[in-house]
Amino acid sequence: MALATEDRIGELLREKLKEEGVSGQVEKLELFATPEGVLAEIVLRDTSVLEEARKIVEDVEGRLESEGISLLPTVRALWQVEEVQRIEIPSPPDAPSDMVGLLFKGSLKSGARHQEVWVAVTTSALRVLRPLATSDQALAELVRAFLLHRLSIGGAGYWDPIREPRQEIDEGAALYLRWRPYEALKTSIDNVFNPSGHEIREKSVIRFVETVNFGKGTRKIRRFLDVLEDLPGPGGPYSRGEWLPTSNSEFYSMLLEQEKRELESYYLDQVAKAEKEFPPLKVQFPAVFN
């Protein structure tokens, strides 16, 4: 029933967007059923049709509400980061040199629209990032990475740079940029399931399954949190005395909820491929697969 409802809502949204001439600008339309209602995310290539698309989706939302169906929509546009540059700001008289952070201006583009955004990097964030980026240009590249990350986040927590042109990189955001936990954990999954060569891959997967199996069936390979610490973990620090994550769980705790879902989905896809490629695994290790 839920799938039928999702299919119907998807068809209805696509039909209305096409009728209003907006469908050609739709990059992605995804639906996901939850106990609270059906989540819908519509991503557009050009922000010039953003308000029009929002109005269309609001009309569909009202129609479904009259039928007792709760639609929870997010309509956003794709943005490109064209340029990031540091803006000089004066320090208060006689203030310590590290009292004031840095300010950067970013130039974004979506379709024909350009948007300026401002990113303040706090002093506590600078202390985290300096071992990684010793020059203003290197810091500007990290600010670019921060903007790209913020723009990539969908769902209810998405960032609209038109409504919120000011952003801040605090210590927490700096740690995320410093360690790139999503990329690190995805690489850990790939190190297990996607090393080069069929024989190497098979040995790597078997070794991983054997490690999970060491728990005598108390952990299951399809439960991502069960096996999180069995994946290859973090490396060493970049500089003496620097804090570093010491476990995959610490990396995982840095992730946004959407990133956690995406990472788990990616991991389960790799497990499914391994089961298909190496059928004896389920026979040899039934406890961890059942």
Q: Which strand order do you get reading across the main beta sheet?
A: 4-5-6-7
Termini Cα gap: 27 Å
What is the H/E order? HEEHEEEEHHEHHHHHHHH
Overall body shape: flat
Proportion of residues in extended strands: 15-25%
Task: Outline the biggest β-sheet.
Answer: 4 strands, mixed
Write the layout of secondary structure elements.
Layout: H1 2-19, E1 26-34, E2 37-44, H2 50-65, E3 71-77, E4 80-87, E5 102-110, E6 113-121, H3 123-129, H4 136-152, E7 166-169, H5 171-179, H6 181-193, H7 198-213, H8 224-227, H9 248-254, H10 257-277, H11 280-284, H12 286-289
Parallel strand pairs: 2-3, 6-7
Antiparallel strand pairs: 1-2, 4-5, 5-6
Helix pairs in contact: 1-2, 3-5, 6-9, 6-10
Describe the structure.
This protein is 47% helix and 19% strand. By secondary structure, it is of the alpha/beta class. The strands form 2 sheets. Strands 4-5-6-7 form a 4-stranded mixed beta sheet. A 3-stranded mixed beta sheet has the order 1-2-3, with helices on one face. β1 and β2 (37-44) form a beta hairpin. It is flat, with a radius of gyration of 23 Å.
